[in-house]
Amino acid sequence: MSHSASSRVQEFIGDPFAEKSLLPQEKLEEIFTDIQSDLRFDHELNGCLNCGICTATCPAAHYYDFSPREIVQLLWTENLDGIYDAMQEKIWACAQCYTCAARCPFGNSPGGLIMILRETAIKHGMESAKNVLRPFSRVMLKLISTGNQLSPDMINPEHFADWGPNISKVDAPLKLLRKAIPMPTLNTTETAWEVNLKTSVELYTIWEETGVLDQLETVDENLFDVIIDIVDEKKEDWEDWKDEQDDDD
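Above: the chain's sequence. Below: its structure in token form.
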């Protein structure tokens, strides 16, 4: 496997590209091998005319130091240093709208390639992945413990300050209002709806089999430990319930 020589490494934003690689060549090649071995890679990367149509139509490129064309070029030329550098910040600017894929004359999908880069960053425990995903830990914990991504008590001025004056529309006596909703499963602010035990265990099984929980351990070990405890407890409850049904029969 031949790769481009070390060339493009930013040690911090605004810094001229340095000549020194941030990682040993062996580690850079390991990261690239994981990217290239993904089944989606050959479908998402077919070549590059360097025309810039993807960047010209990219919403994120108008607001961030981000270019879909740069990502494609780095992967096409196998620029290992540049790929690793992009994985530290730039790949997280993509909104995953896939406008780039719809416009590319070569049929590339920069958005799809960025998804592969993000998953690889998580697999290798990169600090960029940890920083980006850390704010979602509360949502992850809510999903595992209740089966709901969000619940009414999570929508409040403290957690959604960026809503500005619009947050006043949800800043209301939620418990009182939800008691007026006739469906009993909605008479709570801790969950949006009731998820039965069987569904929860099936969700955990999917996450285990697809490696989601392993990736979570790489990103946030403390959250992983908490979630594993919840998963084990739910599984025990599910087995106890099945035993009770067998006894009734």
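The chain has two domains: 25-124, 134-248.
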